[in-house]
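Render this sequence as a predicted structure.
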Amino acid sequence: MAKPPPTFASLEGLLDHRQRDGFDIRPTLLRVLTDLYLQKPTHPTDDERYYTELALRLINSTDMPARAAVAERLAVYPAAPRAVILRLARDVIDVAGPILRQSPCLTPADLALITVECGSAHAAIIAVRLRRREPRPNPPIEVGKNDRAGTQAAELSELFFAADGAERQLILMNLEYAAPAAPGVAPTHANEIVRRLETWALAHNVDAFTREVEFAFGFSSRLARRMVSDDLGEPIVVVAKALRAPRAVLERILLFVNPRIGQSVQRVYELATRYDEISTQAALRLVEIWQEADPREQDAHRQQPVARRPVPDAARPASPPAARRPLDQRTSRPRSLISR
């Protein structure tokens, strides 16, 4: 191993000691290495690189109590190396717990991916962490207490909406490798839905556009409004990808449905590029998460069937024969012929 930088010069004796047979110095070395690192609030690049390389090697080869002790120390340290924090956060729950509860180094995207990858124990701690945050403008989505899947989906949904553009991209790119979406997540007659969405967007009818999203995917009206009014625009990109809408249609929708997005040609271009980068599978998986997190109310579904939604006159189908008034037709036809 290379000679330690000055901060870790005192470790040279321990590094030599660890080679002796019958004496495992690795747990002690990991603890001492971490204690030395924590003595300074910041570190030069060489120190951070040295600590990261040696700590990761020791973490991967030492016992659980030693890893847990290091996690306790690093959890409250703002300058902890990101690679070490991410490794510990994915460890067994006794090691990962302090990191998930306290580490300021974990981003919303990190928490979302750990929830997907590591299972219910990690997800439960992350959920508690999120509930302790300061209230956001959009309140947390309420779900049934006994619905574990719904609770996890709600936390993932909140993480996505709380993330910035780069973090959302990371979440979407990694959702491609999560479990596939269940069959039936994508609505049938997708082409017709895309046509109506574009019509409403071009007409600047945001309410109708929002209802179309709500009914097409089975989201609650609250969630549909939140998606359409999102200032960054990724939820609309996800909807378009799940429907396999043409990119040109997405661009027109982005230009007209949300003024905060449409007024920036650069942002529209960035979102259209994001559309090309993400997979349909990732979009469907996020749609499924949203459906589980905040489904459309069943009473609203019964009271407002899709067929009764208003559509533009140009798209309105002709009335069926049973709905016409034969008497009016018989009395008005001779007049129209005479007038000609």
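Summary. Residues 191-307 form one domain. The chain has a mean pLDDT of 79.
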